[in-house]
Amino acid sequence: MKAAVIYAYGGPEVFRYEEIPRPDIKDDEVLVEVHAASVNPVDWKQRKGNHKFFLKARFPIIPGYDISGRIIKCGANVRKFSEGDQVFCRLTKRFGGAFAEYAAARESTLSLKPDNMDHIHAAAIPMAGQTALQALRDKGRIKPGQKILIIGAAGGVGHYALQLSRFFGAETTAVCSSRHEKLLALLKPDHHIDYHKKDYLKGDIRYDIILDAAGVKTFLSCKRALKPGGIYITVLPRPKLLVHKLIAILTKGKKVRSLLQKSRGSDLEILRKMAEKGNLISVIDSIHSLDKISEAHRRAESHSTEGKIIIKVK
Ligand SMILES: NC(=O)c1ccc[n+]([C@@H]2O[C@H](COP(=O)([O-])OP(=O)(O)OC[C@H]3O[C@@H](n4cnc5c(N)ncnc54)[C@H](OP(=O)(O)O)[C@@H]3O)[C@@H](O)[C@H]2O)c1
Description:
Quinone Oxidoreductase, Chain A, domain 1; 2 domains
């Protein structure tokens, strides 16, 4: 199969587009013919070697975690899916393996692809959509009528969080540059603040949840803008420190939560159903072919994307 492979950490140019053997599958896995994959910030952070001290790579590796495609082979213990099923998922192997013509995926992480989405739009969802869902539902315990502030609302995670926040009945404020007018017109948040023009943490409004989907703020900088009991959620994994508990006591029960996305077929099912009912769409920043993955990574590292970057494989 053709794959985008790296043999060393480095810039976007380290990718080699080459022929390698298809992956083997275990009994609880399926082999997916990948039609589309999407790029997440973790892909280029790993490619650069940012995580090399706690996530040692044995080169060569195929990066990438999000795929949408068709099952062509099922392991002996796979029960819920069959050959020919159109599925999407976030891969759980250490370095993923999405940027290839075939990928091995665990059954427990899979869902059928939304009927009304092509593979390009479905491949956008798994990591960013599950992060947004798990942040608001599990870490934030979001409720109807609450005031939610989403920082980085035009990014992969942020644009799904905007839609989920509305789905959960919350009043949502999107923080992103005004140049994302197309995305804002599509997703229609209740309020929009351009962070280049206004400091959204100053002023009188207090939020029940601040979701920092861009990883650009800290709990301490946000706590004034939280209601008593309000929750600041960051997508940057931070250890659960005792100091967070202490801060919570000192700040009238305001809380800080960090999130590490978990890959669950059941959560993807929720997102699939939302998409099929017209409650979730994927905004696509750009589409690149597998042999042009370097240009996709360059774009991803610009920090200014609108929605998701897609690798069209088939
Ligand atoms: N914890 C987890 O399990 C998990 C899972 C997925 C992602 N993440 C992390 O979540 C972060 C976001 O991921 P993503 O996929 O959404 O990334 P992304 O799509 O690359 O985010 C790009 C967006 O960030 C926005 N942005 C950049 N600087 C900003 C600022 N100062 N204020 C507000 N928005 C700003 C940009 O909007 P403008 O053009 O308006 O600046 C752009 O739309 C990354 O750090 C990623 O590693 C964590």
